[in-house]
Amino acid sequence: LITYYLINIIFVYLFVFPCKADVASSSSFPHQTYSHHQYKMAKHGCHLCLHIVYSLALLLSAVFLTVASAVPFWIKQGSDNACGVFTYCEGSSDLQCNINYYGKSISDFPTNNLRNVAALMIVSAIICWLSCIVSFLTCCFCYSCTKYQAPMLVVAVIFVLATILLFTYSLADFSTATATSNDKIFCNCGSDIKSFKPGNICTFGYGAYLVIASLVVVTITSCISYKVKKLDIENGLYE
């Protein structure tokens, strides 16, 4: 992950800022502006490199969100059970537990809070996967298709942040009182667990840290998307 950040920083500072000079130099030759009807590739040099980095960042964001959604290790009850958004695990050893889904429909989720968390994660992942596919396709053609990706990624950032806050708020659903009255809750974290506090019995697992990492990656990707959009506008690709 640290290597990924360093690569992004290197590309942004080495390739993006020189693009301004490219745009300035090309402005003196208005007859060389590209139209949608020309077959010559409009993105080249640092502009194309940034778009490729942006596409890879979108892919990484989508993968992070998908993996974070799938793993059950968001909260762990010692070495007994682990619970996530879509799955739970009996015997929380990472490689030896039996991972099961809560069910096939949204009504099978244990609580309303988990249903809302699941919905936010699904929407965020869909935005990132669709943006990723479109971004790879628009490296060489249909450039205007990326126009709305930047605001969509801001929505994804907000949704992932809301996912984290809502899940930590819903920790109280794993208390002894709730677990004993709801047979769909497989993690009993005792009576001292509260919203935003896991208590003494349960701890956060790597699934929770993965969704935090997803928030960081999606936020960085969102920032890159606005730089890509700015370069696209400067090069007249949305006209």
Topology:
Elements lengths: L1 H26 L17 H26 L4 E3 L3 E3 L3 E4 L7 E4 L10 H26 L11 H21 L6 H6 L20 E3 L1 H29 L5
Antiparallel strand pairs: 1-2, 1-5, 2-3, 3-4
Helix pairs in contact: 1-2, 1-6, 2-3, 2-6, 3-4, 4-6
Account of the protein in words:
With 239 residues, the chain is of the alpha+beta class. It is built from six helices and five strands; from the N terminus they run H-H-E-E-E-E-H-H-H-E-H. It has helices at 2-27, 45-70, 112-137, 149-169, 176-181, 206-234, and strands at 75-77, 81-83, 87-90, 98-101, 202-204. Strands 4-3-2-1-5 form a five-stranded antiparallel beta sheet. A hairpin with a 3-residue loop joins strand 2 (81-83) and strand 3 (87-90). Helix 1 (2-27) runs antiparallel to helix 2 (45-70) and helix 1 packs parallel to helix 6. Mean pLDDT is 78; it is low at 1-7, 9-18 and 20-40.
Any key phrases for this structure?
single chain; elongated; alpha+beta; 5 strands; five-stranded antiparallel β-sheet; 239 residues; disordered N terminus
> Based on helices, strands and strand pairing, what is the structural class?
alpha+beta
Rounded Rg: 22 Å
What does the overall shape look like? elongated
Give the SSE string.
Answer: HHEEEEHHHEH
Mean pLDDT: 78
Describe the largest sheet: 5 strands, antiparallel
Estimated share of beta-strand residues: 5-15%
Arrangement of strands in the largest sheet: 4-3-2-1-5
Instruction: Tell how many strands the DSSP assignment holds.
Output: 5
Q: How would you concisely characterize the structure shown here?
A:
The chain has helices spanning 2-27, 45-70, 112-137, 149-169, 176-181, 206-234, and strands spanning 75-77, 81-83, 87-90, 98-101, 202-204. The chain is an alpha+beta fold and 239 residues long. 37% of the residues are buried.
